[in-house]
């Protein structure tokens, strides 16, 4: 019964992804890319900031969530490298694909958190705020090794990431206890409300819906790490270390997310094979429609 409730909670989001697939040809490729850029630069940063700054955050919460999130991402980085010998020969192309083993879909995370019995969007915002910089450092560093981007350019690209700036700004406001005046917060909240629907429709419009038919051993390893091994390891770690229920559920949800839909955009920016990465993103999203409700159900029952 819990599984059905969670599945029904996620159903509107997956229907929006399907709607995006139906609308794919109604807009040009440039228009969809423009929507992605709008979401990346404005709408999602607003969502992250509003979620993180919406209530006071205890420093102890950041110190608990941060290391846990970093361990999950590192686990994905290390295990994902097991796919190296089955992947493309050129390291730059492999690096573009490798990032799908640890990067996470922020849009679905904020949808999925509402299906948990005791939703903690602020805790998730802290997890995202702590996870975005590390996930980007890992991804940009790997792609830089395969490309020609220097150390200074790498640091700049990571430091100016809108998700990073918005997440950390929101966490700082939450830690400070400052209340943002309503006239200032209201337009940010309006932008935040638009972020998830726009992102889900765009995912459906740019997704390769036939990608599951091309699930190679290389694809299976990376998707298996992202969708099965990471959440399983997180569940076991939370049980072993007796992590409090609300936090454990958020960490399991965070670790069970499909990969970030923007992976192929970052890969293309470094000159990696965009098609390979886009296929992995599509596979992760489609397979995640099955695995995510299972992990959320397990988290709700255990924690």
Query: What is the count of distinct domains?
Result: 1
Tally of individual helices: 13
Percentage of β-strand residues = under 5%
**Alpha-carbon Rg, integer:** 18 Å
**Order of helices and strands, N to C?**
HHHHHHHHHHHHH
Helical content stands at: over 70%
Shape: globular
Low-confidence stretches: none
CATH architecture: Up-down Bundle
Counted beta strands:
0
Q: What is the rounded distance between the termini?
A: 16 Å
Provide the CATH topology: Na+/H+ antiporter like fold
CATH top-level class: Mainly Alpha
Mean pLDDT: 85
Summarize the main sheet: none
Question: What would you call the structural class?
Answer: mainly alpha
Task: Tell me what the structure shows.
By secondary structure, the chain is mainly α. The chain has one domain: Up-down Bundle (Na+/H+ antiporter like fold). The chain contains 13 helices and no strands. The chain has helices at residues 2-22, 29-53, 59-80, 91-98, 106-112, 121-146, 151-159, 162-176, 182-206, 217-240, 245-256, 263-269, 274-302. The longest helix has 29 residues, at 274-302. The protein is globular, with a radius of gyration of 18 Å. 47% of the residues are buried. The model has no long low-confidence stretch (mean pLDDT 85).
Task: Give the topology, please.
Elements: H1 2-22, H2 29-53, H3 59-80, H4 91-98, H5 106-112, H6 121-146, H7 151-159, H8 162-176, H9 182-206, H10 217-240, H11 245-256, H12 263-269, H13 274-302
Helix pairs in contact: 1-9, 1-13, 2-6, 2-8, 2-9, 3-6, 3-10, 3-11, 4-6, 4-12, 5-9, 6-7, 6-8, 6-11, 10-11, 10-13, 11-13, 12-13
